Amino acid sequence: MIALLLTHLVVGVGIIAFGRRLGTRAAVIAVLPAVATLAWLLARRQSLFGGGIVTEKMSWMPALGLDLELRIDGFSAMLVLLVAGIGVAVHVYARTYLDGGGPRTGRLIGLLVLFGGAMLGVVTADHLLVLYGFWELTTITSFLLIGNDHEKPEARAASVQALLVTGAGGLSMLGGFLLLGSSAGTWRLGELLAAPPSGTVATVGVVLVLLGAFTKSAQVPFHSWLPGAMVAPTPVSAYLHSATMVKAGVYLIARFAPAFAPVLGWWRPVVVSIGLATMLAGGLRALRQQDLKLLLAHGTVSQLGFLVAVFGIGSPRAAIAGTALLFAHAVFKAANFLTVGAVDIRFGTRDRRQLPRLDRTWLPTAITAVVGAASMAGIPLTFGFVAKELTFDAMFAPAGPWWFLAAAVLIVGAAFTAGYSLRFASGLLGRDAIDPVDRSPAANRAGVGLTAPMIVLTAVTLVFGIIPAFGDQLFTAAARGLTALDRVELAIWHGLGAPLLASIAVLTVGVALHAGRRTLTPSLERAGHRVPDANSGYRGALQGLNVLADRTTAITQPGALPIYAGVVLTVAAVLPLTFFTLHGTWPGWPELVGTPAHLPIVAALLGSALAAVLVRRRFSAALFLGVSGYAMAALFVVQGSPDLALTQVSIETLSTVLFVLVLRRLPDQFTWAPKPDGDSVRARLRHRFTPEDRANSPMTTGVRARRIAAAVSVFSLVFVLAIVTSSEQPDTPATDEMIERSLPDGHGRNIVNVTLVDFRGYDTLGEITVLACAALGTIALARAGRRPARAGDTQRTAIRPSRDRGFVAPVADDTAEVAPPLLTPLSRLVIIDVTVRVVFSAVMIGSLYLLFAGHNRPGGGFAGGILAGAAVSLRYLAGGIESVRSLIRFRPWTILGTGIGLAGLTALTPILFGHPVLTSGRLETDLPLLGTVEVGSVLVFDLGVYLAVLSLAMMLFESFGDDPFIDREDLVEAPTDEVEAVRP
Amino acid sequence: MSILLAFTAASLFGIGTYLVLQRKLSRVIIGVGLMSHGGNILLITAGRRGLAPLVGIGEPQELADPLPQALVLTAIVIGFGVTGLLLALAYRSWLLSDDDEIADDAEDVAVARLVRPDDEVDDAETLETGHGYDGTQPEKGVEAPR
Lengths: 984, 146
Prior knowledge:
The structure holds two protein chains of two kinds.
Chain A: H1 2-22, H2 26-43, H3 45-48, E1 54-61, E2 66-72, H4 74-97, H5 105-124, H6 128-146, H7 153-184, H8 189-194, H9 200-216, H10 225-228, H11 234-242, H12 246-260, H13 267-287, H14 292-313, H15 316-347, H16 363-377, H17 383-396, H18 401-428, H19 448-466, H20 472-482, H21 498-515, H22 517-530, H23 534-556, H24 561-583, H25 598-614, H26 618-639, H27 642-663, H28 681-688, H29 691-696, H30 701-726, H31 734-746, H32 751-759, H33 761-783, H34 830-853, H35 861-885, H36 892-912, E3 922-927, E4 931-936, H37 937-960, H38 968-971, H39 976-982
Antiparallel strand pairs in A: 1-2, 3-4
Chain B: H1 3-20, H2 25-44, H3 66-97, H4 106-115, H5 118-128
Helix pairs in contact in B: 1-2, 2-3
């Protein structure tokens, strides 16, 4: 069976892939997997229909207990028979029906094969999750099948509706399976049903599974997708509505009912009620349809309700009745759909008022229609009659007033069925024609390609209807798959009992309904308009979902960065603080001041930080940030870390230059309108607290209060964290070992540098990679949409910054007005030029010294690289970006790559010699004049770091330092009239 | 870690947080810078104070702890990279809108408008998007949300 499933998959995918070339010939290939399945079934008929069980298993994820496990008992075998048998009929029919049906025909046929395979999987899978997988495959393939003609809006809408409804049900079913599987302790369907779990969890699981089954089998109130699904071509409808898809839900209910109906008190009333309600709703709607295919679709809804009601009883009698009804329905409904399709394709309509009277050339179709309708109505000598008798028998068996009511409703539903069956038959034969189409039936005969499959299906209905004993073995085996029971003998004559009387009543009422159709149909139509249908419920649910999503989005996603950051920071601060208050222990206060040297440093730090908040000019704020950085450097000196101090000082210098480069573009102040009392910090402080200022400020008090609250909570967290963590020192700090091993193992005296390039070399490699990303991101952001000005540009696209305006519109070269360069280089005074060159060289040499000496004395790649970057900034200040570019012929990104490459190669080289990554090596050689020279691999690594950091600095100048020539198409948004306004 | 330094680090974090919650990108950048100073203080004070960690200039017990120093060193450089990247954002914001205002996402505002009537949204906006420092010219927003 697994092989057969794979065959379906391969053939289906193959046909989809080559569908365009194959056309309807694909149907010939498509029939093969179904035929193979029938052959497989035939070979095992003795075992399967004699009560045996075939199991197959393919290991998939044994560790998770997830295997492709199949278990085929009599019930599954009957469904396999239906799926494959009707599949053959449908594919044969499709060969003729879809001929010349457009480019998507091949795909349709391939999807049908896949769909059939998925359905086989559903009815044979034993593992719950595998079953779920196949279940969702049928959902997806049916979505594609219904929407295959995706140029039609109604096909799209119907397919989406089918997908949403059955997909949501599938998800609910998955939840149910998970609950059931975990409470039963097994994932095997067979074992689960043999010993059904009980308890709340299991009950919820059953409810969820039922929801899934109800959506799939189109039970009220989820039934509205099914009539919509009939927009698909006939073979699809015939397959979907008869043997597959909708039967999946019935299949599950049939399996679950014998196990859960006896133990769950609500099962029978709920499931049977829903089934009966569906039966009535579908029947009533079918009675007023003019479109025969739509009539059949509503009839399917009705019949599915019938099936669910019967199987829902869960008794042995119900099992046998249900299997018989399932079989009967699959066969006659497929035949009915094929009949309508034949009429539709030949006459171009399936409206009962337009179909012409069929003559003798249409005899096979007419017979099919009549027999199919008779079986649907339950008229003797068709299998539908046998099945319906069994159903009545099962339904009348339980006693009690509730069951009496249920039986009554069932009879009414069956009468509706008889009514719309007659309506179908007379409509199809053209007896109800009011305005028949002008096509002669004789000239438009349905060929044998269409009629042969119908005739075969009709023959099955008749054979089982006339000699029901043929089916004894099949249905006994099928029902035994569900529950234990004796061998059943099917018969036409059940004796003069309640079922027969009920049948007579049903047929009488049915005929009466049909006879009174001229008055009944219009009144039903009127009633139909008044009663809200499930479709509006579906649309309402979708709309509600959208509104809900909008509301949730509007609340949770305001799109304001301050709100996001505020929420994140506040939560990150308040949660740990709460936890600490509840469970933590306060370690006691440490010393107040570590060393007096801290006092001025802290004063400078806090003072500059506060000033950075209070000043209103951007430059001032940036400068205060720089001051705080220098204060940090001083702190590092006090703490005993010259490396850090060196690096920090260089970085602050460089940062300040960069801030200037960017901030010069931005408005001078954070506000646009200057305050009347001036810009000094004092004035600012005084001004903030005047009431009229507060009234005028667009930042409301609430917003400011919230921001301050977030700041205070973060402050509290850090303060507590700092005190608490510092009170706990580890017993053996890693430090001592690092100090010990620095010289012997790392061959360096500067422990910090040894740590960076040796002990924690991996970290450093990661760091410079992060730097590279930052550098590339920066340059991409700053230069996106830019290109260098080229000779021959008719329009210079320089953007001139302006205090009071946005873009100044680009000015064409041929006008007198040319935008001045953005950065006027300082006047190239020779003295400055020369001085800068000299200083530059000196600083560069210093940076190299830091690099080379760094292993033993303060310094290293980071410090050296940053210092070199600071040197580059000197050149920039003197001569602009061109001066920086002229320093070296390599572009910064090349240097960046070289740096990272060097560091990476140094890290990897030891592998060649069988050492772990980043093992340091040394080379000592005696060179003439220089004496013994020692070159360590760590120096190469550090050189890589140096280059990466230097190139970062250079790339930042490249990003912000030049004149932004901008492709105006890309960025300039100034409207044309403004361009005119700028010109004199 | 003395109370003084703990207070300093915490203050830097607090002030940094206040700045990060503003509407002007340059203030956010300065806030991030202050916060990273605070973080560096926390790191560096995790180890003992002492002589520069160079082998041979003193007894091992007298040396400052080298491990936090190595961590802070990389943190400083990474912080520089982050500052560069944020400055690039501000630069880009200037290229596009002439200012470094962090505006509300236009799409999200549009969603909010779908749900609530316009007047309500406007109220809420002034409340929540209260602009950085003293606000900015309303008509000078990056992109007027439609």
